[in-house]
Amino acid sequence: MAEHWELIKEAPIKNNCPECYNQDLIMQFKQKHLRTRMYHRTSAELREELHCNTCGSRIYPVSWTPDIENSVNYYRKMATPGKSGIRFSWLFYVLFLLAIALVGAAVYTYLEGMWGI
């Protein structure tokens, strides 16, 4: 099972970085996707990340100033995640049809008396 975070929205924030005090912050909102051989599931779970482009550091919510928090709350309202759901792959449908065919064949041979019971 492969977990993948897809970028939904990216927004520049014009507040000062708590590390280097430059105004080159970027806010990213990502949505969780799970991929397996049988299905692709889109989750409603969101992750938000704040990065400084100047010093290259990730700013964690513990060190956010009230101004940064207000900006993040504004962009959080604007970030709309994609519709959550599940899509099955062709392998799922092939295995499902094969299972139905095997059950049908077993019922047919049982009803025809080929098992000798």
State the helicity in percent bands: 25-40%
SSE succession: EEEEHEH
Sheet having the most strands: 5 strands, antiparallel
Q: How many domains? A: 1
The N- and C-terminal alpha carbons lie at a distance of 44 Å
Helical element count?
A: 2
Oligomer: single chain
How many DSSP E strands?
A: 5
Extract low-pLDDT stretches: none
Strand content: 35-45%
Keywords: Membrane, Transmembrane, Transmembrane helix
Characterise this structure.
This protein is α+β, with helices and mostly antiparallel strands and 117 residues long. The chain has one domain. The chain has helices at residues 66-78, 90-111, and strands at residues 2-13, 25-35, 39-52, 58-59, 85-88. Strands 1, 2, 3, 4 and 5 form a five-stranded antiparallel beta sheet that branches. A hairpin with a 3-residue loop joins β2 (25-35) and β3. The protein is rod-shaped. The two termini are 44 Å apart.
